[in-house]
Write a structure and sequence with these properties.
Oligomer: single chain
Helix content: 25-40%
Shape: globular
Number of strands: 12
Largest sheet: 6 strands, parallel
Radius of gyration: 20 Å
Order of helices and strands: EHEHEHEHEHEHEHHEEHEEEH
Number of domains: 2
CATH class of the largest domain: Alpha Beta
């Protein structure tokens, strides 16, 4: 496997356990430790079975080992990350990749955020709704400025655990800010819907973007290109039909150079990989997949810096 960067997971619940399954396949990151607080956690049992170090002392146990990981993935809660984990990880010199909507560090979406942002010490993945919809808003915005964006994220109620339900307020607020700051919309709104249908539905997102005059063919091509980019790390990410273009009242229709405002509607579906979570839980799967993608990018930077330091010392 060659040199890899050591990493740890803080949180042994559903998200942490699914993340563990993905990180164990990484050729860039070497998962060493999973930290939790529940001795009976299934995630910790799976970690032990995989030969990983575990602790039930949470962040205290993780930081007690200075070699547990240069990168720490926080899969706990927004409150815990903001009040306890973020400052302690910073003090210990660890790079935090935050899977909660705590919004402590800069917002990060793979393939959209700049290289400069990904070089930070505390990276926030915003929310699963943001990971699914910001790429679409950004894809539209790189062709025509987005005046207003609204997303409606619908998931199965079965895939909304205690953490998701406790963080709903943070979800809507942080997602809306992320659509503005990362997606590029001037204004944004986010809505979450928990669907109790049985059998459970996969994650579905509706993205509405209001723009000025635009080239429909260029917007469509940009969206399809972005879908292909996201599918490289989330294979179950797909469009549910072609983008829809509606001319706002007072404008005229046409594929190119339309006058007045145009609303672009995109419907996205996210099916999970089934590593640990059920396939309908695409909302959680896209978070863990994005976390691995960002973590590997950070890991490559660290490896390059280490190699550069070795060359310099030899010279």
């Amino acid at each position: 496997m060659g040199d890899r960067v050591r990493a740890a997971i803080l949180g042994s619940g559903n998200i942490g356990t699914d993340l563990m399954a993905k990180l164990l396949r990484s050729e860039v990151l070497e998962l060493t430790t999973v930290a939790g607080i529940d001795p009976d956690s299934e995630g910790l049992a799976k970690a032990r079975a995989a030969g990983l170090a575990t602790t039930t002392d949470g962040i205290d146990g993780l930081l007690a080992d200075p070699d547990s990981g240069r990168i720490v993935f926080d899969a706990t809660s927004a409150r815990a990350h903001a009040s306890l984990h973020a400052p302690r990880l910073a003090e210990a010199g660890r790079i935090a990749i935050d899977l909660t909507p705590a919004a402590v560090g800069p917002y990060v979406v793979p393939g959209v955020s700049s290289d400069e942002v990904i070089g930070g010490a505390n990276l926030n993945l915003i929310s699963w709704g943001a990971q699914a919809t910001i790429p679409m808003v950004h894809a539209i915005g790189r062709v025509a400025p987005v005046r207003y964006a609204e997303i409606v994220a619908t998931i199965s109620s079965r895939s909304a655990g205690p953490g998701t339900r406790q963080n709903i307020d943070e979800f809507t607020q942080t997602t809306a800010r992320g659509i503005e700051r990362v997606g590029g919309a001037e204004q944004a709104k986010a809505i979450i819907v928990l669907n109790p249908a049985d059998p459970p539905i996969v994650m579905r997102d509706a993205v509405y973007a209001v723009c000025g005059p635009l080239d429909q063919d260029a917007v469509r091509a940009s969206i399809l290109e972005m879908v292909d980019s996201v599918r490289r790390y989330v294979p179950g990410y797909r469009l549910r039909g072609e983008p829809i273009f509606d001319q706002e009242p007072g404008g005229s229709r046409g594929s190119r150079g339309s006058r007045g405002a145009t609303r672009v509607t995109v419907f996205v579906e996210v099916e999970g990989a089934g590593d640990y979570l059920p396939r309908y839980a695409g909302n959680l799967d896209i978070m863990t997949a994005a976390a691995v993608r960002v973590g590997e990018e950070v890991g490559r930077r660290l490896l390059a810096a280490d190699q550069g330091a070795k060359v310099t010392s030899r010279g």
